[in-house]
Amino acid sequence: MSKRAYNFNAGPAALPLEVLERAQAQFVDFQGTGMSIMEMSHRGKVYEGVHNEAASRLLNLLGNPEGYKVLFLQGGASTQFAMLPMNLLTEGKTAGYVKTGSWANKAVKEAKLIGETFVAASSEEDKYMSIPDVSNLVLPENAAYLHITSNETIEGTQFGQYPDTGSVPLIADMSSDILCRPFDLTQFGMVYAGAQKNLGPSGVTVVIAREELLTNSPKHLPTIFRYDTHLDNNSLYNTPPSFSIYMVNEVLKWIEEQGSLEGIEKKNREKANLLYDAIDNSGGFFRGCADVASRSLMNVTFRLASEDLEKQFIKESEQEGFVGLKGHRSVGGLRASIYNAVPYESIKALVEFMEQFQKKNG
Ligand SMILES: *Cc1c(COP(=O)(O)O)cnc(C)c1O
């Protein structure tokens, strides 16, 4: 087999090799049907089995709390930025947003097009290099929900503690850190995530929500944008992205094999510690961007002394087989995305490359 790249892409991102190999083995003839999963009806028993298994596996990993439902939708997390306020930010209500960075700002921008919003907390003054204090939020009585971005993919920050919002539903965009560690789903009214970072390939967005938040879509909303449409039709109202959902199911199986969320968290902490320690122990040659207490387990952002040196770092890293280390164009610098499927060995190789680079240029 050809050598796998050291893949630090932010999204679409690395998938577990075991999952790719299993999918390859099942690619042409799925379960003896004489066709691939992509070629069969989404209304047939075989596909529906996979579809339902993916949903129940996901809830299982989250402890199967009562009253929660899974939807498989399309249009990415970006569509949820709009669909969420379309469905829940109704007349006379206001929606709270915690402004933590690029993705949170995109979410609030869409909500403003739909209805009234307020900023519940913000780290804008800190250039979004930290997660603001959310321990004592006071929310208005007519708050439809409070929205947070559990992990800011571009800035490299992540919530430690989630806010307690009482009876106001807490809603999280978990696109870049879902299932990176255990979390208590019952703290949330809804979480959603585009699959292409921690759950599978692009093409499907997972919504996990308390059922009562999915049943009250305003009457005027077009059918396809209504949560109740997808709930009532088991996410089969229209043709689902069947191959992506099949892949999500395989990734979820793989997570179970890693010791479920506890096992995954242990590995993720080992990986992140290895990389952050290398940055912190470089005597200032590499500098972490995010506030230490807000550092992400998934997206490690760091800088060198000059942009020229960063360009050289990226160029030389590419020659050595490293992919995706350039920071997002909006913030610059360097970023290593170390999602669930990125193996420890890739980070070890990166740390060795960083040491070599510092020796030559430090
Ligand atoms: C990648 C990402 C998105 C956008 O996802 P799409 O599927 O491209 O719409 C939204 N939020 C966060 C936190 C992300 O990391």
TrEMBL record:
Its EC number is 2.6.1.52. Its main location: cytoplasm. It comes from Fontibacillus panacisegetis. One of its GO terms (cellular component) is cytoplasm. Keywords: Amino-acid biosynthesis, Aminotransferase, Cytoplasm, Pyridoxal phosphate, Serine biosynthesis, Transferase. Catalyzes the reversible conversion of 3-phosphohydroxypyruvate to phosphoserine and of 3-hydroxy-2-oxo-4-phosphonooxybutanoate to phosphohydroxythreonine. The modification N6-(pyridoxal phosphate)lysine is found at K197. Its cofactor is pyridoxal 5'-phosphate. Binds 1 pyridoxal phosphate per subunit. L-glutamate binds at R43. Pathway: Amino-acid biosynthesis; L-serine biosynthesis; L-serine from 3-phospho-D-glycerate: step 2/3. InterPro entries: Aminotrans_V_dom, Aminotrans_V_PyrdxlP_BS, Pser_aminoTfrase, PyrdxlP-dep_Trfase, PyrdxlP-dep_Trfase_major, PyrdxlP-dep_Trfase_small. Belongs to the class-V pyridoxal-phosphate-dependent aminotransferase family. SerC subfamily. Residues 6-350 form the Aminotransferase class V domain. GO terms for biological process: L-serine biosynthetic process. Homodimer. It comes from the Bacteria. The keyword GTP-binding does not apply. It catalyses: O-phospho-L-serine + 2-oxoglutarate = 3-phosphooxypyruvate + L-glutamate; 4-(phosphooxy)-L-threonine + 2-oxoglutarate = (R)-3-hydroxy-2-oxo-4-phosphooxybutanoate + L-glutamate. Pyridoxal 5'-phosphate binds at A77, S78, W103, T153, D173, Q196, N238, T239. It is an enzyme of class 2 (transferase). PANTHER family: PHOSPHOSERINE AMINOTRANSFERASE (PTHR43247:SF1). This is Phosphoserine aminotransferase.
